[in-house]
Amino acid sequence: MPTPRPHDQALPSVPPVRAFRTPGRPRLHVETTGEGEAVLAITGWTISTAIFRPFAGVLPDGMRPILFDHRGAGRSGAWAGPVSVAMLAADAARVLDACDVRSAHVIGVSLGAAVAIELAVRMPWRVRSLALVGGWSGGPLSATPGAAEGARTLATLARDSARRGRLWPASFLFSPAFRTSADPATLDAAVRPFLVGRAGTWVASTQALAASCFNRRTDLGAIRCPTLVAHGELDAMSPVRNARTMAAAIPGSRLEVLPGGHAFPFEDPAGTAELCRSWFEDVRGTEPPVEATPRDLAVERLTRPFALQTGLVRNQRDLALRLLGRG
Known about the structure:
With 327 residues, the chain is α/β, with parallel strands linked by helices. Helix content is 39%, strand content 13%. The termini are far apart.
C-alpha cells in the first residue's frame, strides 16, 4: 500500500500562477499562468512539476504553460492502484479539460515523453505539437545503457547518496563533465528540483511497471503533428540512439542532440531556453492534425483499461523479432 510522501521543502509556485485541483479521482494538482495557446508540460518518473519551474518564462508571449503532477506525486492525490501510460495520458487530457483547453502543444520529459507519445497516438485531436525530451518509444528493442556503464552509474549513485545521507541522482541525470566541473552550489541547485515532491515507493513501482509495458515503436509513423525530439548526447538513462530512432520514424520531425546527460536542460539552461523559444515560435498557431469522431472517443475509452496487457503483447512481439534477427 502507498505510504505518505515526505516533502523536503515546500513546493513553490512561480507567480503569477493559478493553482487548483482537477475534479474526479484522483485529484490532480495543476498550475497555469497567463493566456494564449496552451503548452502542457508532462513530467517524468516519480518527479513533480518542480523540474519545470527553473524554466519559467521561456515560452514566447501569447503561450500559456500548464503544469501538473502525476497521480500519487507532488501535490496530486494519492493513488493505490496500478497505472498505465494510457491512464497517465488520459490524466493529461483531464487536465486540459479542467483548464477548458481543447488542444495544446505538449512537452514530455523522460517518462513524460512516453505519456506525450501515447496522448498523440490515442488522442491526436488534443495535440497541436510534440516536444519529446530524453524519451524513448518503449519496448525491448529500445536502446539501453551497456552493462558496464549501468554498473558505473549505479555505483556512483550509491556512493553519492551514502555520502549525503539521502537520494542523490546526479549520476543518472547529468554528464560526468558537468558533475565534475560544476561548482557545488550549481550542482545542488540542478539536483534539487528532482527531489521535491517525489512519489513514494508504491507509485514509483507502478510507474516503472507502466514504463516497462509501454511500447509504441510501430505507432510513431502515425504521429502527424510537428514534433521536436531533443536528447542529451551522454544520456545515461536513455541512450541517444532512442532519439535518432524516434526522429527517423516520426514524419517530418526535428532532431536536436545537445551536449549533456538525461537532464541536459539543467546543464545548458540558456541553450535549452533558446531552443524552446524557437520551437514554439515555429509551431505557434498549429492546429491538431485531426478532429475527434464519436468512434475515436469510444475506441479510446474502451481500449484504455487494457493498455498494460496490450503493451506486454507488443513486447513479446518485439522479443520474437529480436530472436529471429529481424529487430
